[in-house]
Design goal:
With 115 residues, the protein is mainly alpha-helical. It contains five helices and no strands.
């Protein structure tokens, strides 16, 4: 139990014991577990998906902060008028659609140097 309760993401042994008792009581209530197992699997999958969603949200937030910083630095160091910005946005939208999000700095540099 000393090793397993940590693997189950329990903070204490008491929490692990409580989860084990709930599982067993649920199993007994369903007369052999035929109905209980799908509920447990659904609950477990929900927990896994929620944890993954939380991690992705945190990573997306960090990425958005870095992107915001980069955009502010770019805007501060370049003289870009509204018309150029509108044309650039349209081109970038088309590029992202065409490449399905697979854009790279290398491709942008080649495009900019071709003009």
């Amino acid at each position: 139990m000393d090793e397993i309760y940590r693997q189950d993401n329990c903070k204490t042994k008491s929490e692990f014991i409580e989860k084990a008792i709930r599982f067993y009581v649920g199993y007994l209530k369903t007369e052999g577990g035929n109905e209980y197992l799908p509920k447990v699997l659904t609950s477990t999958m929900r927990g896994i998906l929620n944890a993954a969603e939380d991690r992705q949200a945190a990573l997306l937030f960090k990425l958005a902060v870095e992107l915001s910083m980069m955009l502010h630095v770019t805007a501060a160091t370049n003289d870009i008028d509204e018309d150029m910005l509108t044309r650039l946005r349209g081109r970038c939208v088309q590029e992202v659609k065409t490449l399905r999000g697979s854009v790279s700095l290398d491709k942008a540099v080649r495009f900019q140097n071709a003009d």
